[in-house]
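Protocol step 4 of 5: obtain the predicted structure for the target chain.
Materials: sequence only (see below). No template structures provided, no constraints applied. The aim of this step is simply to have a reference model before the mutagenesis design in step 5. Sequence pasted as it appears in the construct record:
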Amino acid sequence: MQMAATQQSRGERAMAGCRAAGHIVDNGGDATIQQRQPNEHWQLISRRVIALTHLIRASAQLTYKREIGLDETEWRTLLALGVLGPVELSVLADFLDVDKAQMSRAFARLAERDMVTRARLRGPVRLTDNGVNVLASLQSLATARNHLLFRTVSTEEIRLMTTALDHVLEAAQAVAQPSEGLQAARSASTPTHASGSASRNPAAALVSRLILVSRALRRVTSPFYQQLGISDLEAHALLWIAENQPLKVRDLVHYMERDKSLVSRLVHRLVDRGLLKPPPEGKRSGWLMPTPRGSEIHEKIVQETYRNDARYRAAAGDDHAALLKLLGQITESARQLLAYEQEINRCLSAGLGGARADRQA
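Step 4 output (C-alpha cells):
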C-alpha cells in the first residue's frame, strides 16, 4: 500500500528504509485484518457509519501528525477554515464538535506557528499565507488517502452513497436539530477533507458526508445515553462486551480499535457503575462480562438503536442494501489503511526507518 502522491512522503521513505533493512515483510497493504464476527446489530446504518468514521479519523491523525506535525484539532481547524473561510472561534468549535477551551488551545498553537491569525480578540480567524501552504499539503495527503480508502468502489457507487447518506442525515436532523456548526458544514459547498466541489471530488464529498452523518447520529443517541447515565463511548464498549462476551481488555481494544489506556478507563468506569462484573479478588483484570444491570442497559440500547435505524433505513430507501454493502467494503479498506499507518509509526519509533528515510529524501 502506497500513498498515490507525486512526492514520496516521510512515511513511504521510512517504510522503504525498513524494507531495505529487512525489518518489514511487504504484503502490499492488502493483508486481511483479523475478521470480527459481526452479529445482526452490525447490519445497521448507524453502527456502520460511526465505526467507519472512527477508522478514517484514526488513520488520518497518524498521517497528518507524522507528515505535518499537527494534532487532530489543529489539522481539522485548517481544513475547516479552508471550507468556511474566516469565522469566529466559537463557530469553529461547534463545526469541529470540540469544546471552546480545546479550540482556544488549538488556535494558540497554530497562531504561534504562523498558520492562523485574527485582527482582534473576538474577531474572525483566518489562514495566514503559511497556513494556506500547509492546508495545500493537507489536501494533497487527503487526496492520496481517499484514493486508498475508495479503491474498491466506483465513482458511481461513491455518488450513490453520498446521496443515500444525505437522506440519512436529513432523517437524523429531523430528530435532533443541527447545531450552528453542523448547519455550516452542511451548507458549505467545499468538502471538509479536500479542495474542489463535490462534483469534481466525489471521494472528498463522501468523507465529508460520513463525518457529518456520524455527528448527527451521535446527537440523536447522546440524550438517550445520558438518561441511562453513561457516555457514548461507554455505551459502545458495553455493546461490544455484551455481544462478544467473555472478553479480555486486549480483545476490547481490538474490537473498538481504540487506545488501550482509553479502553481500560472505560472498563473501570463501567465496573464502578455496576454494569460490568469486577475482576476476581486479587487480580487486576479478568474476563469482561456484563452484570444483570449491564445486560438490562445493553438491551435498552439495542432497542433504541433499532428504533432509530428504522428511520435511517426508510430514508435510504431502495439504496439501503447497497449503502450497507459499500460501507462494509470501505470499512475494510479503512482498517487496512490504519494498519499501514500504525506499521509506519512502529518502524519510526524503533528507529528502523527514520534516518535511512531522511537520507533517501
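Step 4 remarks: The first strand starts at residue 116 and ends at 117. Confidence is low (pLDDT under 50) at residues 24-38, 189-199, 354-361.
Proceed to step 5.
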